[in-house]
Amino acid sequence: MERPVSPDAALLARALRDPASLEPLDADGWTALIAMARAEQLIGTLAQRLAGAAMPPAVARILEDARASAADQRRAALWEAEAARRALVGVEAPIVLLKGTAYVAAGLAAGEGRSIGDLDILVPRESLDAVERALLSSGWEWVKPDPYDDAYYRRWMHELPPLIHRERDRMIDVHHTILPLTARITPDPEAMIADSIVLENGLRVLSPEDMICHAAAHLFADGDLAGGMRNLWDIDRLCREFGGRDEDFCLSVYERAHRHGLLTVVRRAFRLARQLYGTPVRAYRSPIRVPLDDRLSDRLYRRRLFARNGWGRPTRRGTRFAFYLRSHWLRMPPAMLARHLWTKWRKGYRPV
Amino acid sequence: MAERLYRAAAADALRIVPLDDFTVIFHRPSGLTHLVTAPAPEILALLSEDVLTRNALLACLGAQFDLGDASAEALDARLGELVATGLVETA
Amino acid sequence: MRHIFQVRIGPAGFRVGSDWRAPIAELERLYAGYPAPENGVPDFTVRLFAARPWRRWLRPAVTLGGDFVLPDAAPLPLSQGLLAAEMAMNLQMALGQRRYLLLHASAVEREGRAVLMTGLSGAGKSTLAALLGARGWRLMGDEFALIDPATGMVHAFPRLVSLKNAAIGVVGDAVPQARFGPLLAGTPKGDIRHLVPDPQAVARMDEPAQPALLLFPRFGFAIAQRDLGPSEIFVRLTQASTNYVALGERGFDAMTRVVRDVPARAIDYPNAEAAIQQVEALWNAL
């Protein structure tokens, strides 16, 4: 007897990639798709993509709610950026918005329908103290007074310990580089800040090439692929938008990635984005040789990225754990990794 | 140093609904609701018409709303709160 | 998931998946008169699962999951699986509902107009709604009243009525025992027993009503009544709403409309009979 194959999040990737080609879904198919999209924080994006497509009224209502919710998140994210701008008026330093907030502030397609949580900003390392003081005097407070975490952040991470605004209850992460200082790859944050683009209100966003580098670095070097589908969707949208203006955009990205030590990471991200979403990325033979042929190991990454069932539940525990370990390996030298994991485990943290 | 100037958030950014002694204000850009009492609605009314310094504002409050007994320190505190919420901006 | 139950309560469809049969069997029995989610597609998914595989059998503990979760929701013993399901469904509404302004209030209806009763836990809103439901009012819900920002109408959410401790006996005297679920003793909130709303509450759950009276009941005090100013009503209702901020300007519109249009009273009462009389008297005086 043949058991029905339970869907994994490849269904979500197909729906995002080409809504028109989506196989007709029955009620259970729609239900699974919605649960996965919520779990991957892609429900607003899905709603945007499926606008106008044929669907049962119940689904249309759910997606309409998701669109409204994404619009509210967009508005809140822009206000959070504005509040930070006002708080940091006296700090003589460039303030670079990162991730979702940057996409909506710059009016990019990657921001459409995107869920946005914390505000992430990048500032020069020498301005950290001034930024910290200015935020603390404008209503932000430390989230958790845990000495181990605090010491860990300050010593090794690429950001201040998270701050939360006491009235608005929103978090801000202040980065001074895009990867932890413990990571073996060390991108050049000064170049990123120097080449960032000024918006009308004086805040900045990364250059198009650096946006891709950052998204790719974040996906592989700074995490265990959690949220990977959304991250790759960002990369897809960015590549389509910037590639539409400049046919050699991919080449500029490779040159930039090479400078940051992120070329391998960017190539992996491009291959996976193409496999998931059909992203139009280009390989080059000259002036530099950058092949983009699919690799066998991409399958393992996809297995991890799609590890979610129709109930929105994480699946493939073994694959997830392997990527969890790997992410910590990438982030820290082995002796430190052992110490860190030991401290985390004693505090009751378990990977999903 | 030049004196600091204040103005209200743009009129279309605010929804102002007087309730009783309190007025409820929805601030569209932040999506947050603020419940305020005198002299905040009066301050907002004045600063929506003119960009004013604190001293000019104090004088207007006294002349137009009979709130002239408010001290400069108290007004500074109210202005600080209004600026923190985004209902008032420094120009 | 191994065991699955789907139901529609008012405008919200739910899918409940469980590692165990027992909670699903109880849901099937108590929600027997309810329809399935519209188009077969639920709004929310709830999961009841064993956080560690052996917890399915060894001192089985039900962990709550779903589309929307609180990070630190403590697991419940399997004997309280029904409560776990109800809590998880409420949580989806509290955290995920974006179509209606959600007020933590019970609601009953007569002639197309509704009384909303809100208050802290222990104020008696479930008890009063159940008792009024036994006296000819239509029960619209004992936990959440849903205000449509577009129309200002209140929509019903008649889930199982959750009665706690002494209220179990009080309501037990007024409605047939067959409509009660099992007694769940020793839960984090004391003894709990669920009551199935009467057939008309379910049959008419798609009929919205005009909010006509807003009550803030308080149990355990001598009979007293007091008016509330608009700003006090506004503050208390925003505190009683889990999605006011998330709804943005639509929430503001819906809330100011309720505060402006619906007469409100705080009522203190020493026992259920006294409360019912006050509600009826206020209603007749409208």
Descriptive account of the structure:
The complex is a heterotrimer of chains A (352), B (91) and C (286). With 352 residues, chain A is mainly alpha-helical. Chain A has helices at 10-17, 27-39, 43-49, 57-87, 99-105, 128-136, 147-156, 189-194, 208-220, 228-245, 249-260, 263-277, 298-305, 317-331, 334-346; strands at 96-97, 119-122, 140-142, 163-165, 171-175, 197-198, 204-205. In chain A, a hairpin with a 5-residue loop joins strand 6 (197-198) and strand 7 (204-205). Chain B has 91 residues and is an alpha+beta fold. Chain B has one domain (5-86). In chain B, helix 1 (40-49) crosses helix 2. The relative contact order of chain B is 0.24. Chain C has two domains: 3-96, no CATH class; 101-284, Rossmann fold. Chain C has eight helices and 16 strands. The N and C termini of chain C lie far apart (51 Å). The chains are: A mainly alpha (352), B alpha+beta (91), C alpha+beta (286). Chain A binds chain C through residues 26-28, 30-31, 34-35, 38-39, 56-59, 61-62, 65-66, 68-69, 72, 75, 311-313, and chain C through 1, 13, 15, 17, 37-43, 45, 47, 49, 65-67, 98-99, 246-248, 250.
Most extensive interface: A-C, 24 and 23 residues
Please name the CATH topology of the largest domain in chain C.
Answer: Rossmann fold
One letter per element, helices H and strands E, the order of chain A comes to HHHHEHEHEHEEHEEHHHHHHH
Task: Quickly give the structural class of chain A.
Answer: mainly alpha
CATH topology of chain A: Beta Polymerase, domain 2
- Output mean pLDDT of chain A: 88
Q: Compute the number of structural domains of chain C.
A: 2
Structural class of chain C: alpha+beta
Classify the helix fraction of chain A into a percent range: 40-55%
Low-confidence stretches of chain A: none
Shape of chain C: globular
The tally of beta strands of chain C, per DSSP, is 16
N-to-C span of chain A = 32 Å
Major sheet of chain C: 8 strands, mixed
State the helicity of chain C in percent bands: 25-40%
Beta percentage of chain A is 5-15%
Features:
heterotrimer, B: 91 residues, alpha+beta, three-stranded antiparallel β-sheet, 40% helix, globular, C: 286 residues, Rossmann fold, 2 domains, eight-stranded mixed β-sheet, 29% helix
